[in-house]
Amino acid sequence: MSGCEKVNPYSGDSRHKSEQVRDMFDNIAPAYDFMNRAMTLGIDRSWRAKAIAMVKARNPREILDVATGTADLAIEMWRKMPHVKITGVDLSEGMIERGRTKVESLGASGQITLQTADCLSLPFADGSFDAVTVAFGVRNFENLGAGYREMARVLRSGGMLTVVELSRPVNPIIKPFYNLYTRGVIPLFGRIVSSDSSAYRYLGESIAAVPQGEAMTRLMKESGFGETHSRPLTFGVCSIYTAVKE
Fold first, then answer.
1. pTM of structure
2. pLDDT tens digit string along 152-166?
3. What digits encode the pLDDT tens for the residues 2-38?
4. Which contacts (CB < 8 Å, 24+ apart) does range 219-228 have?
5. What angle do CA 165, 211, 45 make, to 5 degrees?
């Protein structure tokens, strides 16, 4: 079990992590997009763009976006690959509803389909997709290894998994500022903007606990993937991980 699986949104809550995560995202859905932009100063767009370029280079026809949230990544992939069929899944109906509103307003409903689903039990046949993506979601998995195995199952042979996830910088100059920001500024801002202050305390804790670098790529290999790579971005505060199904 990885460390992030032991970190839950609501301390003292005896429910499974996936239930807590679902309720947390339902609660913060109205403020989610604004908080994403504000917390990263908009840099999250460039992180997604780099990941999309990696996906596009594989020329996929069907993509599954796991933990799609309000469909930010799905929409950006559609803009860069308008003829690709994209399916987005998320535990939170509140997030999915906001994503559907965005997709419909762009006239992209024909190419992007959103639905609620558990990443540990995806409602798709083996080998259904050419690519699977996850942006800022794997640290919320109740069982990360099982999640990776399930994503490997629905990938076709040679298909690529692309994971964008927040990470901890190791630079001794950057690290103290990062810790202050994630442990102090973000929770404070979350209390002001969101009705669920626990969500933004949990954010920092889950980033600290999620596997990093080689630990993450090793877990991917143990879950059935080969050809794994880790790419740190922006002083190491974000990482892109890729893995190919053998």
1. 0.92
2. 999 999 999 999 999
3. 667 778 888 888 899 999 999 988 988 888 888 777 7
4. 219/2, 219/144, 219/145, 219/148, 220/148, 220/161, 222/145, 223/145, 223/148, 223/149, 223/152, 224/148, 224/149, 224/152, 225/148, 225/152, 225/161
5. 10
